[in-house]
Amino acid sequence: MRRRNRAPVAPLPQRYGIDPVRVRLPEGVGAGWVTVRDFLVERYGGAVGVGRVEGMVREGRFVGVDGPVRGDEPYVAGRYLWFHRDFPAETPVPFEVGVVHRDERIVVADKPHFLATMPRGRHVTETALARLRRDLGLPFLQPAHRLDRLTAGLVLFVVRPEDRGAYQTLFRDRLVRKEYEAVAPYDPAVELPVTVRSRIEKERGVMAAREVPGEPNAESRVELVRHAGGVGWYRLVPVTGRTHQLRVHMNGLGLPILGDPVYPVVREDGPEDFSRPLQLLARTLEFTDPFTGGARAFESPSVLSGPS
């Protein structure tokens, strides 16, 4: 089997904690690109406009191993180019990312509400990953798992790329014990504790996930810790990790988590209200370290604000 040569190191540094995009000029396509500009316009012109692509070429935004690329350079199949995309305008999230633990292999962060774990869609620089890379000076930092943007609490990041797979495997194989806290309505008619098992599906482009008939693929343990004034404080222990699982299961029990903009009713899109966070917190992470064999246990110092 022929082995593809490893890509060279990117000649561009990270920008605001975000890696440059790498593109390899295709081989054997037969599309008749004569110049680098021809390829770039066909590849990206439909997304950002031909004029913007040409402007980026003139500005030297596309870079090869030897420096900025001119648009009239001959097309050479297999060549690597790098560039930084234009970042979308983002509303700054006015909360800090805490660091609960840091060593040579991992960083355990305490992510605030409203901050995405990693770049996705319209959230790029305002993400926990980008902030931590910049603030800690760790350009190769990567998350071992993901926490919903609206959920606060613990996220495990890996310092070195070669270690990431071992920690990701812990989450994939359900070898990490996670415990959450939530604030939601109190209903004495709901018998707790209870283990909820159901089938959850989420369609691409649809905001809310839903429970449907079929073989269960999601399991959560729900316990009442205390209640007062019609409001309950709950301990949630997920066994699986489906999208919005805890929010869906609490809503299914008739106990929608306070501050949830999706369950039971999808709130109209508009400016983020930072004074009304989702009352859900990833409180603890516990696992056996894949490298040392030692027990690891971390707890978020954050506190849910409760009903507004």
TrEMBL record:
Species name: Streptomyces sp. R44
Alphabetized InterPro entries for the sequence: PsdUridine_synth_cat_dom_sf (IPR020103), PsdUridine_synth_RluA-like_CS (IPR006224), PsdUridine_synth_RsuA/RluA (IPR006145), RluA_PseudoU_synthase (IPR050188)
Stored Pfam families: PseudoU_synth_2
Reactions the enzyme catalyzes: a uridine in RNA = a pseudouridine in RNA
Name of the protein described by the UniProt record: RNA pseudouridylate synthase
TM spans (from-to): none
GO MF term (any one): catalytic activity, acting on RNA
Record GO biological process: enzyme-directed rRNA pseudouridine synthesis
Domain Pseudouridine synthase RsuA/RluA-like positions: 106-251
UniProt superkingdom: Bacteria
